[in-house]
Amino acid sequence: MRRESWGPGWARGGRPEPPPADDAAAWIRGALPDDWFTGPPEITIDRDEIVIVGTLPAPQAGDDATDADRAAAEQGRIASFREATRDRRIGIARQLEHRYRRKVGWGAVCGDTREVFTTLSAPVMTRLRQADRQVLDTLVAAGVARSRSDALAWCVSLVGQHADSWLSELRDAMGSVDELRRRGPEL
Questions:
Q1: Do the Cβ atoms of 55 and 76 come closer than 8 Å?
Q2: pLDDT on residue 109
Q3: In the listed set 76, 91, 122, which residue is the last one of a domain according to the structure?
């Protein structure tokens, strides 16, 4: 079926917008077993994916443990959690994917170690002028990135790191605009 106009619920890419996920964080907190994490998980939601990252208790390290020993113990704790919870995480993810029409990614933090697993990489298309392509090509030629795609992802990550507070303010402002749209004018 060909769609001639973009109505509500349709993205410009031609696929329908996923349903709102305003209650997803609460739903997730209710679905997760209480003994998985030391506190509420960090939940990040966009139009493509829901990522759930929880904090695990740090393993006991002896007084003579080196930083490398601590890092290895933290990685082991995360690997153990990942294996032990696999079936339950898959079940929760299936329910979330059905309810919110988004992929689900998982991760864990233990001490200074953070690992996000089963996460989505979404292709993004863009048109760049020559000067912008040359920036990407320089990064590839210098060995910073393997391809233009990797170079673009590197640039986006770098901007995200250095503009975090500005991006946070922008997201807050967009949330206010969404709320105003939802309420509509008072008559």
A1: no
A2: 97
A3: 122
